[in-house]
Amino acid sequence: MTEALLEVHDLVKHFPVGGAMLARSATPVRAVDGVSFTIRRGETLGLVGESGCGKTTTGRCILQLERPTSGRILFEGLDLVTLGEEALRPVRRRVQVIFQDPYSSLNPRMTIGQILAEPLKVHGIVPDRQGRAARVRELLVQVGLLPQHAGRYPHQLSGGQRQRVGIARALAMEPALIVCDEPVSALDVSIQAQIINLLEDLQSRLGLTYLFIAHDLSVVRHISDRVAVMYLGRIVEIADRKTLYEAPVHPYTKALLSAVPIPDPRLEARRERTVLRGEVPSALKPPSGCVFHPRCPIAEARCAAEAPNLREIKSAHWGACHLA
Amino acid sequence: MAAAPQTIEDLARAEARRPRWLAVILDFARQRPLGAVGAAIIVFMALLAAGAGLVAPYDPLANDYAAMLSAPSAAHWLGTDSFGRDLLSRVIFGSRTALMVGLGASLLGATIGSAIGVTSAYFAGRVDLLVQRVMDIFFAFPVIVLALAVVAILGTGAGNVILAIATPMVPRCARVVRSSALAIREMPYVDAARASGFGHARIILRHMLPNVMAPILIMATAFLGEAILLEASLSFLGLGVQEPTAAWGLMLRGAAVEFAESAPWMAIFPGLAISLAVFGFNLFGDSLRDALDPRLRTQ
Q1: What is the edge-to-edge ordering of all strands in the sheet holding A317-319?
Q2: Distance in angstroms between the alpha carbons of the first and the last residue of chain A
């Protein structure tokens, strides 16, 4: 369990702003600005942060749906950033994705059977038609659906069922890594639990590795082995789940965790809350030094001048704060 | 049979007995009577074209020098032309030419146009910019001029006329389809297809094109009427189908110039046929657009 499956080094993704091709503005949106982390084979890394902090963009870069501006993405030792579209094809089989919105992630003009059989055919995983139909039934059962769902269209299924189809589509490719981009945030709470359990069950049976992107801290706490916290395009803290939730070092992580309500009115009334001042600054003009300093309750003069690097504060507990 | 009071159950049973396709058509007719009129005209025209040989009282090419330029009568309901050919028969056979050229041009234009539109949206960036500027160049020419240019290059004849009429449709269809395809491109299922390592052609044809079919269908229907008019215009100018084929524009050509005063029926009836056909297709096309895609409504 110590072998690294995915290593991300100094990943940067800038988006140009301003429409015209010839007159792109000089200041791009710094969606992801120097993100590094490792995912070991068989583990789940949770990636949390507010909307717009760059967690989805990070996932899309790993999937090579966006080409990074700079940085390296090593998957099984292969740098995906340097590969062309053709060379990426076999890698794409090994890195799959589950999307947030189960309504728009399935092609409305294809039946569930066609959706699941397509990758089997294109990648030559199951070359004959009968074999594909059998494999599709197997996949459907594996994610808790019925074989007869193969003939249905996506609009005939419920949100939870569609999300199961999305999972089955990812499994069809027999991947090693699945990027789960907010896979449960569009679902009802009761369905969320079912999908989370399914993901965990599949992980233990098939030895999958997950990058689990979410903004729901309790869901991330439940499923992750380690958790990374992102703020404004950077990782501010990364540690194993227990350490991060019980002894966070970064003031942003502390504020984030203090915002989670406790399901007990007496404890809830007494708990301490750190309320952050202001809004998340624009990724167009990130603050100088530590990007969190304008909102940080403990910021000092040097926080505005000098950007903190992610350093190992305790063993296997990394934080990007001068004062931690 | 006594008129029993209609209960909801009765109505539901009657509804269930009716086949689904019929229910869809009846619904359309009830909600959009004008569209239904258009559809009726189109169906009538299609039936005439299909059964022209059975319906037409005379051979449309047969000359009858004993009855040249005769006014409408019991023998020749719409009269005859300067060669003694029966006008009713020529109008009926003319619907064949009109439909063939119209359908051919619409189909060809919509196919090429939507292929260009979806591809342009899919590749985005520089490819999109280049393709759209080329389309702009085509837009700069009036439709008839563009069609004339193609005929001038390729020569006359039914096949070339179809090409000529399809040409101005390509950029229009490409632009409308591109705008729909741009939205489809951002759908997660297209991302999923890309993340699965599918080829460009597969993503364009299997994942994007089927989801932009509604605007393509609407464009093709709306263009049919215009294509018929364009075919008549080209024939009128002598650059479309050639004599002695029965074609409405061609019939006008001879009639309007020399016989407008002495034999007005020669010009009136093919003119009416053109108007009616274009009217029918436009009515139907507008209703179809409203029914399929309310967002494209013009007002």
Answers
A1: A95-98, A177-181, A209-214, A44-48, A226-231, A234-240, A317-319, A311-314
A2: 29
Q: What is the residue range of B131's domain?
A: 80-292
Q: Is residue B34 within 8 Å of B283, Cβ to Cβ?
A: yes
- Is the CB of A101 less than 8 angstroms away from the CB of B188? yes
Residues in B touching A100 (Cβ below 8 Å) = 188
Residue B110 has pLDDT above 50, yes or no: yes
Instruction: Look up the CATH number of the domain holding residue B125.
Output: 1.10.3720.10
Query: Which chain A residues are Cβ-neighbours of B197 within 8 angstroms?
Result: 88-93, 122-123
Burial of A167 (0-12, 13-18, 19+ CB in 10 A): buried
| Closest-CA residue of chain A to B209 | A109
The reply to whether A275 touches chain B by the CB within 8 Å rule is no
Best mutation target, A67, A107, A118, A121, to test chain B (most B CBs within 10 A): A107
- Tell me, yes or no, whether B25 lies in a domain: no
Specify if B56 maps to a domain: no
Q: Is A223 helix (H, G, I), strand (E, B) or coil?
A: helix
**Cα separations (Å) of B79 from B12, B48, B71, B90?**
53, 19, 5, 11
Distance between CA B58 and CA B80 in Å, rounded? 11
A169 with B192: Cβ contact below 8 A: yes
DSSP state, residue A249: -
Question: Is B48 within a domain?
Answer: no
Nearest to B195 among A92, A106, A118 (CB): A92
- Of B129, B199, B211, nearest to A21 by CB-CB distance is B129
**pLDDT by residue (tens digit) across A2-47?**
688 999 999 999 988 765 555 555 678 889 999 999 999 999 999 9
Q: How far apart are CA A82 and CA A94, in angstroms?
A: 17
> Could you tell me how many CB contacts below 8 A there are between chain A and chain B?
64
- The answer to whether A104 faces chain B, any CB pair under 8 Å, is yes
ipTM: 0.88
* Domain assignment of residue B64, yes or no: no
Cβ–Cβ gap A65/B191 under 8 Å: yes
Show pLDDT as tens, one digit a residue, over chain A (324 residues). 468 899 999 999 998 876 555 555 567 888 999 999 999 999 999 999 988 899 999 999 999 999 999 999 999 989 999 998 889 999 999 999 999 998 899 999 999 999 999 999 999 999 899 999 999 999 999 999 999 999 999 999 999 999 999 999 999 999 999 999 999 988 888 899 999 999 999 999 999 999 999 988 889 999 999 999 999 999 999 999 999 999 999 999 999 888 887 778 888 787 777 778 778 888 888 888 898 998 888 888 888 888 898 889 888 899 999 887
Closest listed residue to residue B221, CA positions, set B282, B296, B133 = B282
B242: which residues sit within 8 A by CB, 6+ positions away?
B156, B157, B250
Query: Are B189 and A21 a contacting pair at CB < 8 A?
Result: no
Q: Does A141 touch chain B (CB under 8 A)?
A: no
Residue of A nearest to B197 (CA): A89
Domains held by chain B: number: 1
- What distance in Å separates the CA atoms of residue B52 and residue B30, rounded to the nearest whole number? 31
Least Cα separation, residue B30 to chain A (angstroms): 27
